[in-house]
Amino acid sequence: MSSFAIDRARPMLATGLFSAVLFFAAPLHAQQCTVMPAQVKLGETLRITCPAEFPSAKLNERSAQLYLQPDGKRFGLLPISVKDTPGTFSLAISRSGSGAPQTLRVVIRKTIFPSQNVKLAPEIEALHSTPEEMALLTTFRDNISETRSWADPLEAPVSGCMTSPFGVRRLHNGKPTGDYHGGVDQRTPEGEAIRAVAGGTITFAKQFNVLGNAVGIDHGQGLESMYLHMSRLVVAPGATVQRGEILGYAGSTGRSTGPHLHWVLYVNGVNVNPAQWVKLQPCSGAAKKR
């Protein structure tokens, strides 16, 4: 072949090789799963997106189902508990059939939570949940429906500032309880409407000893929310609600020191920080005292 022909063939060869690289690389790239965020704080949630052949993910001993979405991909939520150990871990994502799983790196960051003392009157401090109430709450957390009724962003249930953030170590009358605040409190006047953070189905709407008048909503695919201490409820179990729909009105029922809203998000049965899902403005001195 003449040098002229070789010179002419070189661009064509390079183009062909480039096209071949794209042809083989594109399918490989398309099969990759992603996790957000790659660095997560205690109490936050991992969001995992994968091709359709990846049905589940596991981090340490905690598993999460990845649900098929309308766009043909799979998506799932994996909670990080306040009680988890910080460090670098492997997120194992299983593949259907005989295909090899994928492994992604996740960093759980050390997270410092402040302490908070709540002054309770003796008759309020003496309130305790009944076995029937505890069983109902356990069933609520454990039952996960597959139909997704929520979409980002979630809506704050009330407009008030946050008086008590997620994760604070709780003291009652100066004595450690050994527990942490599993949701957030928002400043809410008596009678203010409490609204659903997303669409879903009402699992329970009833009065509890400690939680007061409370509502639990199943939003589907692992996400649930709960709203406590209301003065009055306006929904019933089994009802379907939309994002922003009124569930009841603020009050101070159950173990409460005054009108406010305490609300909780669960992901696959684990309390997670609502502030990762909804932008909340803290009140001045919120971590110290309600």
Describe the protein in words.
The chain has three helices and 22 strands. The chain is an alpha+beta fold and 290 residues long. It has two domains: 34-109, Macroglobulin (MG2) domain (Immunoglobulin-like); 115-276, Distorted Sandwich (Glucose Permease (Domain IIA)), CATH 2.70.70.10. Strands 11, 14, 15, 16, 17, 18, 19, 20, 21 and 22 form a ten-stranded antiparallel sheet that branches. The longest helix has 28 residues, at 3-30. The radius of gyration is 24 Å and the shape is globular. The N and C termini lie far apart (86 Å). Residues 1-6 and 8-30 have low confidence and may be disordered.
User: Tally the helices: what do you get?
Assistant: 3
Helix content: 10-25%
Quick one: CATH superfamily of the largest domain?
A: Glucose Permease (Domain IIA)
Question: What is the beta-strand fraction?
Answer: 35-45%
Distance between the termini: 86 Å
Radius of gyration: 24 Å
Looking at the overall shape, the CATH architecture of the largest domain is Distorted Sandwich
Mean pLDDT: 87
| Overall form | globular
Provide the CATH topology of the largest domain: Glucose Permease (Domain IIA)
The sequence of SSEs as H and E is HEEEEEEEEEEHHEEEEEEEEEEEE
- By CATH reckoning, the class of the largest domain would read Mainly Beta
Supply the number of structural domains: 2
Report the major sheet: 10 strands, antiparallel
* Total beta-strand segments: 22
Low-confidence stretches: 1-6, 8-30
